[in-house]
């Protein structure tokens, strides 16, 4: 059971700082949908927007406040009366609300942006917190750009803000400048030096300009910070904020080192991530921790073999625990026999002999060299052909193939066949590359069969999909089908034709459809 001291408050600012990502603006309805998802995720605080920014954002924060019952709803305000009053009005319908007010404390911000003396900044902070406290009993104060502020000045302004009624003190590394040890040291020294520090919850808000937002946040947790401000998918101003999913899973996974936990329902992480990506149009990179499509996918044979034998060899979390259906074995050119056989087993593809498995695996590797990803349908095709090749007499095989097809010119196919152990070469022109290929084969084999059917289907989608060709031939009342598949449909066609011809050369052909009803 988690004690209050061990409890890490998750303050989600996807709808406020996340929305400050250029291009991520959300409508009121979209904010409410995301807020509902955040409630299912069980975040503690939802910062829903900046009510003074526009009438639309005021109404969005108000709509979230009217909707959410199981999280605190927060509105951001500058340290001035108008912003604070707007924030107070927007969050008023919430069963639990918070006003978050901030003012910059770094020398560069105070002098160049606010154009205020440090004493004036303290006065504004105190006045803002005091005014907010009349509207709401839960007040958060942030000294913006704390990461580049003078610690002595921070001590003074924070002590004053707590005296004025701030219940949460949030230390932002607004421009993502701090390094983990330095940021941890800042939190430690502020908490040690400020006499009334224990009257507030300590929070951090880290940006990712140097890719350190999560590391800095976790370093602060070890120094007693008990609220982290973060966003889904790490969305946020410039390079973004600390990613909620990474923070939550780090504390959940490293309980041995991080002395706290959250109340997050982690199985809602992936659905929430997808919703935010869809609404904002900011797609998640494939290798993003936790929520990237590859976060629980394995392609290389050694890893696949390890995971199949014991998941923990290469996984520190369970895909199911963060809302993925399961981990994924992606079959590709780095995959090994064990993963290949395991997926074939799952698909119900059985190999009678080790030689069949080897033949299918060999063909699979050849295909994987040509194709980015191998789908289940590709495996089916590879396995079927491999088994057929092993079981049937393949006295004629395609050794090499080349085809020239140009606008305004007649296509010409050149090929080498191995016929009963001997290599033979031929070329022929045709009405298309497939026709040319079939004519080049006919020239070597003296084929006297009628082509009853030629069909080509793509096995999967994408321009690198395999084409699956079926050829039906008839000779002397006997009908045979041949199949071939390849990412090159002309080669697939030549193989399908040869497959049918091999069957005609043996006794395997069926009698004519007109006589046996096929
Ligand atoms: C680190 C952060 O994420 S901070 C939050 C960033 N979010 C936003 O800015 C929300 C969207 N912003 C807006 O819609 C607008 O900027 C508004 C409505 C807030 C203000 O608009 P305007 O009144 O036109 O002011 P403008 O944006 O041009 O300039 C900001 C003003 O606020 C002042 N200001 C900035 N921060 C603060 C603060 N924390 N407290 C008090 N005043 C502040 C600036 O000094 C400047 O004052 P000036 O007009 O006297 O020079
Ligand atoms: C408003 C504050 C907390 C902020 O977003 C920042 O400093 O980055
Ligand atoms: Mg920020």
From TrEMBL:
<dbReference type="InterPro" id="IPR002034">
    <property type="entry name" value="AIPM/Hcit_synth_CS"/>
</dbReference>
<keyword id="KW-0963">Cytoplasm</keyword>
<dbReference type="InterPro" id="IPR050073">
    <property type="entry name" value="2-IPM_HCS-like"/>
</dbReference>
<feature type="binding site">
    <location>
        <position position="17"/>
    </location>
    <ligand>
        <name>Mn(2+)</name>
    </ligand>
</feature>
<keyword id="KW-0479">Metal-binding</keyword>
<protein>
    <recommendedName>
        <fullName>2-isopropylmalate synthase</fullName>
        <ecNumber>2.3.3.13</ecNumber>
    </recommendedName>
</protein>
<feature type="domain" description="Pyruvate carboxyltransferase">
    <location>
        <begin position="8"/>
        <end position="270"/>
    </location>
</feature>
<comment type="subunit">
    <text>Homodimer.</text>
</comment>
<dbReference type="InterPro" id="IPR013785">
    <property type="entry name" value="Aldolase_TIM"/>
</dbReference>
<dbReference type="GO" id="GO:0009098">
    <property type="term" value="P:L-leucine biosynthetic process"/>
</dbReference>
<dbReference type="InterPro" id="IPR054691">
    <property type="entry name" value="LeuA/HCS_post-cat"/>
</dbReference>
<keyword id="KW-0028">Amino-acid biosynthesis</keyword>
<keyword id="KW-0432">Leucine biosynthesis</keyword>
<dbReference type="InterPro" id="IPR013709">
    <property type="entry name" value="2-isopropylmalate_synth_dimer"/>
</dbReference>
<dbReference type="GO" id="GO:0005737">
    <property type="term" value="C:cytoplasm"/>
</dbReference>
<keyword id="KW-0808">Transferase</keyword>
<dbReference type="GO" id="GO:0003985">
    <property type="term" value="F:acetyl-CoA C-acetyltransferase activity"/>
</dbReference>
<dbReference type="GO" id="GO:0003852">
    <property type="term" value="F:2-isopropylmalate synthase activity"/>
</dbReference>
<feature type="binding site">
    <location>
        <position position="207"/>
    </location>
    <ligand>
        <name>Mn(2+)</name>
    </ligand>
</feature>
<feature type="binding site">
    <location>
        <position position="205"/>
    </location>
    <ligand>
        <name>Mn(2+)</name>
    </ligand>
</feature>
<keyword id="KW-0100">Branched-chain amino acid biosynthesis</keyword>
<dbReference type="GO" id="GO:0030145">
    <property type="term" value="F:manganese ion binding"/>
</dbReference>
<dbReference type="InterPro" id="IPR036230">
    <property type="entry name" value="LeuA_allosteric_dom_sf"/>
</dbReference>
<dbReference type="Pfam" id="PF22617">
    <property type="entry name" value="HCS_D2"/>
</dbReference>
<dbReference type="Pfam" id="PF08502">
    <property type="entry name" value="LeuA_dimer"/>
</dbReference>
<dbReference type="InterPro" id="IPR000891">
    <property type="entry name" value="PYR_CT"/>
</dbReference>
<comment type="pathway">
    <text>Amino-acid biosynthesis; L-leucine biosynthesis; L-leucine from 3-methyl-2-oxobutanoate: step 1/4.</text>
</comment>
<feature type="region of interest" description="Regulatory domain">
    <location>
        <begin position="397"/>
        <end position="518"/>
    </location>
</feature>
<feature type="binding site">
    <location>
        <position position="241"/>
    </location>
    <ligand>
        <name>Mn(2+)</name>
    </ligand>
</feature>
<dbReference type="InterPro" id="IPR005671">
    <property type="entry name" value="LeuA_bact_synth"/>
</dbReference>
<comment type="function">
    <text>Catalyzes the condensation of the acetyl group of acetyl-CoA with 3-methyl-2-oxobutanoate (2-ketoisovalerate) to form 3-carboxy-3-hydroxy-4-methylpentanoate (2-isopropylmalate).</text>
</comment>
<dbReference type="Pfam" id="PF00682">
    <property type="entry name" value="HMGL-like"/>
</dbReference>
<keyword id="KW-0464">Manganese</keyword>
<keyword id="KW-0012">Acyltransferase</keyword>
<comment type="similarity">
    <text>Belongs to the alpha-IPM synthase/homocitrate synthase family. LeuA type 1 subfamily.</text>
</comment>
